Amino acid sequence: MSAPRATSLGGMIDAITQVPTPENEPVKAYVPGSDDRKALDAACEAIAGEKIVIPTFVNGLAVKGEKTSTVTMPHDHGHVLAEVHHANAGTVQSAIDGALKAAPAWQALSFDDRAGIFLRAAELLAGPWRMRINATCMHGQSKTAHQAEIDAACELIDFLRFNVHFARQLHQVQPKSAGTSWNQTDYRPLEGFVLAVTPFNFLAIAVNLPTAPALMGNVVLWKPAMTSMVGAWHMLELLREAGLPDGVIQLVPGDGPVQGEACLASEHLAGIHFTGSTGTFKTLWKGVGENLDRYRTFPRIVGETGGKDFIVAHPSADADQLATAIVRGGYEFQGQKCSAASRIYLPQSLFGAVRERVCAELAKVKVGDVRDPANFMSAVIDERAFEKITGYQALAKESAEVLYGGTADRSKGWFIDPTFVKVDDPKHRLMQEEIFGPVVTTYVYEDAAFEATLDLVDSTSPYALTGAIFSRDRQAVDLARTRLRQAAGNFYINDKPTGAVVGQQPFGGARGSGTNDKAGSAWNLLRWMSPRSIKENLVPPTDWRYPFLAQ
Ligand code: NAD
User: Fold this and answer.
1) What pLDDT, in 10s, does the model give residues 406-440?
2) Mean pLDDT in residue range 16-32
3) Which of 1, 213, 299, 419 could make an S-S bridge to 528, C-beta 3.0–4.6 Å?
4) Is the CATH number 3.40.309.10 carried by domain 309-493?
5) Which residue's CA is the nearest one to ligand 1's atom 8?
6) Whose CA is nearest to atom 16 of ligand 1?
7) CB 13 within 8 A of CB 257
8) What sections of 142-253 are H helices per DSSP?
9) Top-level class of domain 35-305+514-531
10) Where are the domains positioned within the chain?
11) Ligand 1 pocket, residues with Cβ under 6 angstroms
12) Is pTM beyond 0.90 here?
């Protein structure tokens, strides 16, 4: 039972305040035997030991649905973590109504008051809630301790802190005042509600999508991926603990098409904040088009979608650096990062050394339960993903050369071994399609064909999310950076194409990879504001005649 909430009088303090200067949250190491590791192990045991019931959460009240589904551990698919109640179309409508009702009080709070809630949430996550939230991510998403820490703790803390900082900077962008006029820009929230539809693979993204618009004064319906519901539910509890008022973020779990249809049909839809596959995003965008005549305002559509991320190596590159980038960039979190290295272009002169090193390192990679600190990889998210990825393994066996792996085991968890493949055809499906699993494909080019290979990189896949050039030759770096300007929204030089840090490498891509609004940046926050220009005339004229009319 929540405590009764006070209603603000809409007052605020008279001050131009400064928000705390954000720093990136330091990453904990979780060395076996350390106090942090022991605390994390205890949190994992607690999460594994409970089976929670997750309701729809509308207007501060838990609502049960007629339909339920279970969330299981991907690395132990017989182990149920939660039972989730789906919101039906009627519940979604109540959530929309409730959000619109909550909007005036939320918008009457000053920016500082709203920001204070999210800054407190960041501190709760950095401190007392850290292990619990990391443990939900380890068991719910099958992330190792390190992968959970950089996502559910550090990146999410960074989003919460940096968004406040960037929002405050935007507020300071004001027009000039000339003559007798005083001009101001009022950064209004959007009129209506924002629908946040979030993916399974990053809890940081799942929480950023509803909280970024909420910080700017919007009310939000949050539809997480069903496989991420355990982390989403615990994070909603954290946000409530931090003081988020009821109704501002309404949690509506369920099947995407049911939620999507109910929200898209509302005249009050003001925006969609989406991360997920390109296909789902297109469905939502088309749905907006079909409903366009209903809306009171043109909805803002922001979507970060799929990727087919590349590493291209110049003959001057270092084979050991390349191999390390392929192992980390391609296989961490089982290749289920939108930024995961998935197609590799190697010169003939380096192929032998890189192949040898990658295969030798993959032989040392252990795949298994996330609780065992020896494991570098764990399971893929669910049976559907397992079927899809093993389908690509089969395709590799039929039509390419499997250099390493190609095996999988579904008996206890959805485990797929790291798989390294070589194709002769640079336009092979394995070089074009997003696999979203631990299958990395390489194409070997003649050393003299580096420039032509850059054109191949640019034209082979419909995506343009991340990419990397490895080279010790500066001219080659410059050539790649220029020729691949539109091929990736995040471009790396001598580094793996994963691991973007909030405030350092704003993240997002164009073409089939999304609208490139860069989550965790001022550009993204701008999409959740509708600026109003206000002009006040300090000396209003009293004569309608202009001087040129004078006789
Ligand atoms: P998905 O598209 O299957 O699902 C994303 C969300 O959309 C889920 O909440 C799902 O329930 C919902 N959904 C599905 N159909 C819907 C519909 N018709 N209407 C409304 N909602 C619907 O994606 P996923 O498997 O959860 O995530 C993996 C994908 O996300 C990959 O393609 C990956 O590249 C992409 N991704 C991109 C980024 C980025 O920043 N570009 C980041 C993370 C993930």
Assistant:
1) 999 999 999 999 999 999 999 999 999 999 999 99
2) 96
3) 213
4) yes
5) 225
6) 256
7) no
8) 145-148, 156-171, 203-215, 229-241
9) alpha beta
10) 35-305+514-531, 309-493
11) 197-202, 205, 223-225, 256-257, 259-260, 275-277, 280, 283-284, 304-307, 338, 434, 436, 465, 507-508, 513-514
12) yes
